[in-house]
Design brief:
There is one protein chain. The protein has 288 residues and is an alpha/beta fold. It contains 12 helices and 10 strands. It has 2 domains: 189 residues, Aspartate Aminotransferase, domain 2; 90 residues, Aspartate Aminotransferase, domain 1 (Alpha-Beta Complex), CATH 3.90.1150.10. Helix content is 43%, strand content 18%. It is globular and about 60 Å long. The model has no long low-confidence stretch (mean pLDDT 96).
């Protein structure tokens, strides 16, 4: 499929009916960064739960599963995100995934994983993507993030589920022709770029440590588990916006994550030398 958003939205579509409810973490990509696609495309609403660094537990999810009383929406689907983007690339513990899987199976719910950065979780933990994925009905993955392919994502699931997803992909406008050149890029990335994700994680840990020494920056080092660094500037959104603009003028690109939060991401196109330069520029702008 063209994008991770489409992969996630196809999963929502195949697992739900209009009027259903989907349980997601409150900072999840599906809820925050997909332009209310759940409501627009599948006509479902999201029930959000605040996790700890983006991670939900079975105990948190259980009370949010609706009873079957007639005036309630039907809870149809639970979605997790591994690694969790807005929480800073945090990793879901496999044992917690198993516990949530048992809960959703007992309640006859579908289970979807937004695994756009699943390979980052796998490299960091040594747990194979297959082992993570086996507990879910569908898993979305992205080839154009840490793996470095030009574009593209995929949705995995049972043969029957994917046949239905193909139908909706066509309806959503995601059917593509002459797609082999993009698939070749994804295959190249899968064959060659997975082990080197460890380098991105090491660079992110180094960069986070450097940022944590700069006065005015607030950063939770425990959330830096893979290749994403989330930090803030004394909780002041106007300072964050100004810093983004001033950094861009000097060739350093970071993104705004809302509520004065900023995000830096390491990947195969960013060297350690470039990160050292970026750290020095940030320090020069904040320390007077």
């Amino acid at each position: 499929v063209p994008s991770g958003v489409m992969a996630n939205q196809l999963a929502l579509k195949v697992h739900t009916q209009p009027g259903d409810e989907v349980i997601v973490e409150s900072d999840s990509h599906i809820f925050n960064f997909e332009t209310a696609g759940a409501a627009f495309l599948s006509h479902v609403q999201c029930a959000t739960i605040k996790g700890k660094r983006g991670i939900l537990t079975a105990e948190q999810i259980a009370p949010s599963i609706r009873s079957s009383v007639y005036y309630n929406p039907k809870t149809a689907l639970v979605c997790l995100e591994n690694t969790h983007n807005k929480a800073g690339g945090t990793i879901y513990p496999l044992e917690e995934i198993k516990r949530i899987k048992d809960l959703v199976r007992n309640r006859n719910l579908a289970f979807h994983l937004d695994g756009a950065r699943l390979w980052n979780a796998s490299v960091a933990t040594g747990i194979s993507p297959r082992e993570y994925a086996q507990y879910f009905d569908t898993v979305s993955v992205c080839f154009s993030k840490g793996l470095g392919a030009p574009v593209g994502s995929a949705l995995t699931g049972s043969r029957e589920t994917i046949e239905r997803a193909r139908k909706y992909r066509k309806i959503f406008g995601g059917g593509m022709r002459q797609i082999g050149i993009l698939a070749a890029g994804a295959l190249f990335a899968l064959d060659r770029n997975i082990p080197r994700l460890k380098e991105d994680h090491e660079k992110a840990a180094w960069f986070a440590k450097e940022l944590s020494t700069i006065p005015g920056i607030q950063l939770d080092m425990n959330s830096v588990q893979t290749n994403i660094i989330i930090f803030s500037l004394d909780g002041k959104p106007e300072k964050a916006e100004e810093l983004i603009s001033r950094l861009k003028a000097q060739g350093v690109l970071i993104s705004e994550m809302g509520q004065s939060m900023l995000r830096a991401v390491t990947h195969l196109d960013v060297s350690l030398e470039q990160m050292k330069k970026a750290s020095a520029i940030i320090k020069s702008l904040l320390v007077h």
